[in-house]
């Protein structure tokens, strides 16, 4: 009989500062070699459940636990702090939160040092895991110079170098381009078959996994299990197709813009313009320069050459915490003072922030943090808004609300530049697509000319939206 890895009986969890429980009466077990996905609305406690499985909670917080958790047949409370973590490896939703060393090689070596691995074993183990994860060329790279997607792959390599029995994944595809995400799932499939690794993942992008998972647990808004059943492959979210609201007036103009940092050219000179009311998707492989472009447009990265002309740019970064300045969600959204109370209320309601309006922005889920940052920038009413991966961590309802808000604001004359790897979201919204590869602008294309161009998609690690035939009809 397969070994029982996890066993939870009537488990509940509450943070001391909260009146309501984050998780309520959770009971399930996981056997060796299972592939389990945990799904549910943003903020329902999925990540909290993972952190209870790896003993991060309650060992590293003041959370209150009722019920029983058994790990490998032994009560979780009987493990010393950190004892279980060489058997249960975790890849967090925000990879930056788990890095300690400057370079990829040093981070991997640091992981092995914590496991007291013999010095003679380190070099071959590092080489092996870098080859397996396709990261050999980044061995000596500074981690903070890498894209979000590359950081995610480095974090996965750090988990796998521990040779764990269990791999916990918190939205591992959220920062990966479509091609790399497909490769990641195929590689994980092969790895799991070879090692009988037990995999538990939290995920919103279920359509990207095909038939990988054998079982799915859905959590409800109350933090209880709604369903526990065999996994059913998903179709992507179906968005309506918006009508273009482009105007003749130019909202953003760049000329020969380039970025070089420490003698490394991150962005080659590029020029393009964006019209008022236009929605532009910025797409390309992980590490191609998409976020660098966004940061240079809004002045976070100093431009080495060129100029940017705009009436005002707002920016929602990939890590939304960088924006937060206040003590509550409501204060954060209202911070700019540019919107009326009625407008703020509508915005909070649309993005499902009313129920957490008094919560501290750092104490909510990753998906909720992203929605707070988006709401704050929309409330600021900047003429041009840059969004870096706004769909990450969002459930279906939140994605549809975000689509509606962008569509509405574009009709009112706001201009959007959106970095996203969600091709269905991109295809539903985009008037045009900026394609970037290796720090160079391939070009700005009408969106309808991109989705059927297989060569162009392949060159930029993109996959055609699954609704591409329907899109062709809407463009006809």
UniProtKB/TrEMBL annotation:
Keywords: ATP-binding, Cell membrane, Membrane, Nucleotide-binding, Translocase, Transport. Residues 6-247, 252-463 form the ABC transporter domain. It is found in: Cell membrane. CDD domains: ABC_cobalt_CbiO_domain1. SMART domains: AAA. One of its GO terms (molecular function) is ATP binding. It is a peripheral membrane protein. InterPro entries: AAA+_ATPase, ABC_transporter-like_ATP-bd, ABC_transporter-like_CS, ABC_transpr_CbiO/EcfA_su, ECF_ABC_transporter_ATP-bd, P-loop_NTPase. Its main location: membrane. Signal peptide: none annotated. Belongs to the ABC transporter superfamily. This is ATP-binding cassette domain-containing protein.
């Amino acid at each position: 009989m397969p070994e029982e890895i996890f066993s939870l009986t009537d488990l509940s969890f509450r943070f001391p500062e909260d009146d309501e429980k984050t998780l309520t009466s959770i009971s399930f077990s996981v056997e060796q070699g299972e592939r389990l996905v945990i799904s549910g609305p943003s903020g329902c406690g999925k990540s909290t459940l993972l952190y209870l499985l790896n003993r991060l909670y309650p060992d590293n917080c003041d959370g209150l636990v009722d019920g029983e958790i058994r790990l490998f047949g032994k009560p979780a409370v009987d493990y010393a702090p950190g004892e279980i973590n060489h058997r249960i490896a975790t890849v967090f939703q925000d990879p930056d939160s788990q890095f300690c060393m400057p370079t990829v090689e040093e981070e991997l070596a640091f992981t092995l040092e914590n496991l007291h691995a013999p010095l003679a074993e380190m070099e071959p183990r590092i080489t092996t895991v870098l080859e397996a994860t396709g990261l050999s060329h980044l061995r000596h790279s500074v981690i903070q110079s890498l894209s979000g997607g590359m950081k995610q792959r480095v974090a996965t390599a750090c988990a796998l170098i521990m040779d764990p029995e269990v791999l916990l994944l918190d939205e591992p595809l959220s920062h990966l381009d479509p091609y790399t995400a497909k490769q990641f799932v195929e590689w994980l499939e092969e790895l799991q078959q070879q090692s009988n690794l037990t995999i538990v993942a939290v995920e919103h992008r279920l359509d990207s996994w095909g038939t990988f998972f054998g079982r799915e647990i859905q959590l409800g808004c109350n933090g209880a299990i709604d369903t526990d059943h065999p996994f059913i492959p998903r179709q992507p979210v179906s968005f309506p197709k918006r009508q273009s609201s482009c105007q003749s007036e130019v909202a953003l103009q760049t000329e020969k813009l380039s970025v070089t940092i420490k003698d490394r050219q991150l962005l080659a000179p590029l020029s393009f313009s964006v019209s008022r009311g236009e929605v532009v998707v910025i797409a390309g492989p992980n590490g191609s320069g998409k976020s660098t472009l966004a940061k240079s447009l809004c002045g976070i990265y100093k431009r080495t050459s060129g100029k940017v002309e705009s009436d005002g740019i707002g920016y929602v970064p990939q890590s939304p915490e960088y924006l937060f300045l206040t003590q509550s969600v409501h204060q954060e959204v209202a911070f700019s003072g540019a919107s009326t109370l009625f407008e703020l209320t509508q915005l909070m309601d649309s993005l499902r922030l009313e129920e957490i309006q008094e919560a501290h922005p750092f104490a909510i889920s990753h998906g909720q943090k992203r929605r707070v940052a988006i709401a704050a920038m929309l409330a600021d009413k900047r003429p041009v808004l840059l969004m870096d991966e706004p769909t990450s961590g969002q459930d279906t309802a939140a994605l549809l609300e975000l689509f509606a808000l962008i569509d509405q604001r574009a009709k009112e004359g706001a201009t959007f530049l959106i970095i996203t790897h969600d091709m269905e979201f991109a295809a539903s919204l985009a008037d045009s697509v900026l394609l970037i590869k290796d720090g160079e602008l391939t070009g700005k294309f009408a969106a309808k000319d991109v989705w059927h161009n297989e060569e162009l998609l392949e060159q930029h690690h993109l996959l055609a939206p699954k609704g591409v035939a329907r899109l062709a009809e809407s463009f006809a």
